[in-house]
Amino acid sequence: MDSVVRAAFASVIRERRLELNLSQKEVAERSGYSEEYIGKLERREHTPSLTATIMVSAGLEKDPTDAFNDVRARMLLFKWLEAKNPESADC
Asked: Which of 19, 49, 87, 91 is the most exposed place for a label (fewest CB within 10 A)?
Protein backbone atom coordinates (compact mmCIF):
# COMPACT_ATOMS: atom_id res chain seq x y z
CA MET A 1 0.00 0.00 0.00
CA ASP A 2 2.94 2.36 0.60
CA SER A 3 3.72 2.50 -3.12
CA VAL A 4 0.13 3.54 -3.86
CA VAL A 5 0.15 6.28 -1.20
CA ARG A 6 3.56 7.54 -2.35
CA ALA A 7 2.44 7.74 -5.97
CA ALA A 8 -0.84 9.48 -5.15
CA PHE A 9 0.86 12.00 -2.83
CA ALA A 10 3.60 12.66 -5.37
CA SER A 11 1.05 13.45 -8.07
CA VAL A 12 -0.91 15.78 -5.77
CA ILE A 13 2.09 17.80 -4.61
CA ARG A 14 3.74 17.95 -8.03
CA GLU A 15 0.52 19.15 -9.66
CA ARG A 16 0.00 21.82 -7.00
CA ARG A 17 3.65 22.91 -7.16
CA LEU A 18 3.39 23.39 -10.91
CA GLU A 19 0.06 25.25 -10.55
CA LEU A 20 1.83 27.72 -8.26
CA ASN A 21 4.89 27.81 -10.53
CA LEU A 22 7.17 26.87 -7.64
CA SER A 23 10.45 25.00 -7.68
CA GLN A 24 11.10 22.12 -5.30
CA LYS A 25 13.50 24.43 -3.49
CA GLU A 26 10.75 27.00 -2.94
CA VAL A 27 8.38 24.33 -1.62
CA ALA A 28 11.14 23.14 0.70
CA GLU A 29 11.71 26.63 2.05
CA ARG A 30 7.99 27.18 2.59
CA SER A 31 7.45 23.82 4.30
CA GLY A 32 10.60 23.57 6.41
CA TYR A 33 11.97 20.50 4.66
CA SER A 34 15.00 20.09 2.45
CA GLU A 35 14.84 20.32 -1.31
CA GLU A 36 16.18 16.77 -1.40
CA TYR A 37 13.25 15.53 0.70
CA ILE A 38 10.69 17.29 -1.50
CA GLY A 39 12.34 15.70 -4.53
CA LYS A 40 12.21 12.27 -2.91
CA LEU A 41 8.51 12.74 -2.17
CA GLU A 42 7.85 13.65 -5.80
CA ARG A 43 9.93 10.70 -7.03
CA ARG A 44 7.99 8.37 -4.71
CA GLU A 45 11.08 7.44 -2.73
CA HIS A 46 9.54 8.34 0.67
CA THR A 47 6.14 7.86 2.22
CA PRO A 48 5.23 11.15 3.89
CA SER A 49 4.43 11.22 7.59
CA LEU A 50 1.32 13.00 8.78
CA THR A 51 3.51 15.92 9.84
CA ALA A 52 5.16 16.10 6.41
CA THR A 53 1.75 15.98 4.73
CA ILE A 54 0.57 18.93 6.81
CA MET A 55 3.75 20.98 6.39
CA VAL A 56 4.16 20.35 2.66
CA SER A 57 0.47 21.11 2.08
CA ALA A 58 0.86 24.39 3.95
CA GLY A 59 3.93 25.19 1.87
CA LEU A 60 1.82 24.63 -1.22
CA GLU A 61 -0.98 26.85 0.10
CA LYS A 62 -3.30 23.86 0.20
CA ASP A 63 -5.50 22.85 3.09
CA PRO A 64 -4.08 19.57 4.48
CA THR A 65 -7.57 18.07 4.57
CA ASP A 66 -8.00 18.81 0.86
CA ALA A 67 -4.57 17.35 0.13
CA PHE A 68 -5.43 14.21 2.07
CA ASN A 69 -8.75 13.86 0.23
CA ASP A 70 -7.00 14.38 -3.12
CA VAL A 71 -4.50 11.64 -2.23
CA ARG A 72 -7.30 9.26 -1.24
CA ALA A 73 -9.14 9.96 -4.49
CA ARG A 74 -6.02 9.32 -6.58
CA MET A 75 -5.06 6.10 -4.82
CA LEU A 76 -7.34 4.14 -7.13
CA LEU A 77 -5.34 5.40 -10.11
CA PHE A 78 -2.18 3.85 -8.65
CA LYS A 79 -3.69 0.64 -7.24
CA TRP A 80 -1.86 -1.33 -9.95
CA LEU A 81 1.43 -0.58 -8.16
CA GLU A 82 0.48 -2.99 -5.38
CA ALA A 83 0.58 -5.92 -7.77
CA LYS A 84 3.73 -4.69 -9.49
CA ASN A 85 5.72 -4.13 -6.30
CA PRO A 86 4.34 -6.36 -3.54
CA GLU A 87 5.32 -5.20 -0.05
CA SER A 88 4.91 -6.68 3.36
CA ALA A 89 1.79 -5.76 5.28
CA ASP A 90 1.93 -2.13 6.29
CA CYS A 91 -0.14 -0.31 8.85
From this structure: 91
